[in-house]
Amino acid sequence: MRVLVTGGTGFVGRAVVQALAGCGHEVRVLARRADQPSARQLAESTGCVLVPGSILDETALAAACAGVDAVVHLVGIILERGPQTFARIHVEGTRRVVEACRTAGVRRLLHMSAIGTRPHAVSPYHRTKWQGECAVRESGLDWTIFRPAVIYGPGDGFCRVLALGMKPPLRWLSLGLQPMVGEGDVLIQPVRVDEVAGAFARALEVPAASGATYELGGPALPFKDLLHCLAAAHGTRIHPVPVPRELAYAGAALIEWLSPWKIPTPGHLAMLEEDQRVDASPALRDLGFDPRPFARGLDYLQCGGAEQRQPGARSGRG
């Protein structure tokens, strides 16, 4: 099968491209930065074809969709920067992908959303993800939607940011103290990136996946336990320190204003305050999805915190 992947050079995208290529599919990747070494390395390691352009570039998107049998739409952002807003990427971008599929006669569309997506969510991230889902459901295409929980694995941003205070030099400065919002009892269901990628690849082969929405998440654990697991994987121990909600939000607002990274924002904290309730049983039934516990999924981290990266991996999102 000839498959186009949007967002294929990002963290999740690289894993999906590898999974699709491993299943024998001919993979095409629409990439905004196709000339970067990481993109070229991905092409060399998987045999995928890079098509320069973005989902907001009508001409490039049309060229990328021409002649393919399916589209896997992964493009998303967790932080707004200038014109790259949640509405522009998650809503307008998804609508353009849907329209390009229709124009090119591509019937099969796999779309990545997120757990917690709903019309009246606190976070604009989740609200716009919902609008993107609506565009897919109303498309008339043969669609499948995925709602993963927090995704981790080689080259991720989630674990890397959380682990900053667990490694030198911040470890020495912080004395092992790890701040967290509230008591750290919010449930989270992290899922490994290769497990998510495998679900996407299998969905192309399973008729039952047509018209289905799958939630993807691993076994639940409290956020404070997640921190302890991550510290242990880095060969250290931490002492979680509860931070009052008001103080945490004030600090996030200050970071958003002053820091070039702008993470975490108040919106990110709002998402982390919600329990992640994932029902992965449909994915288990249809796709054989069987996620490992978080502690076991951190085997890619060597003692002391060195990370074994995926081929073509780089910092940040593609």
Helix share, percent: 25-40%
Mean pLDDT: 88
Structural class: alpha/beta
Q: Compute the number of helices.
A: 13
CATH architecture of the domain at 2-154 and 191-217 and 277-292: 3-Layer(aba) Sandwich
Shape: globular
DSSP strand count: 13
CATH class of the domain at 2-154 and 191-217 and 277-292: Alpha Beta
Main sheet: strands, sense, barrel = 7 strands, parallel
Unreliable stretches (pLDDT < 50, length at least 5) are 308-318
Strand proportion, as a percent range, falls in 15-25%
Walkthrough of the structure:
The protein has a domain at 2-154 and 191-217 and 277-292: Rossmann fold. The model is unreliable at 308-318 (pLDDT under 50). It has helices spanning 11-22, 37-46, 58-65, 86-104, 124-137, 158-162, 170-174, 193-203, 223-233, 245-258, 266-272, 281-287, 294-297; strands at residues 2-6, 26-31, 49-52, 70-73, 108-112, 142-148, 151-152, 177-181, 187-188, 191-192, 213-216, 221-222, 239-243. Helix 1 (11-22) crosses helix 8 (193-203), helix 3 crosses helix 4 (86-104) and helix 4 runs parallel beside helix 5 (124-137). The chain is globular. Helices cover 40% and strands 17% of the residues.
Secondary-structure map with pairings?
Layout: E1 2-6, H1 11-22, E2 26-31, H2 37-46, E3 49-52, H3 58-65, E4 70-73, H4 86-104, E5 108-112, H5 124-137, E6 142-148, E7 151-152, H6 158-162, H7 170-174, E8 177-181, E9 187-188, E10 191-192, H8 193-203, E11 213-216, E12 221-222, H9 223-233, E13 239-243, H10 245-258, H11 266-272, H12 281-287, H13 294-297
Helix pairs in contact: 1-8, 3-4, 4-5
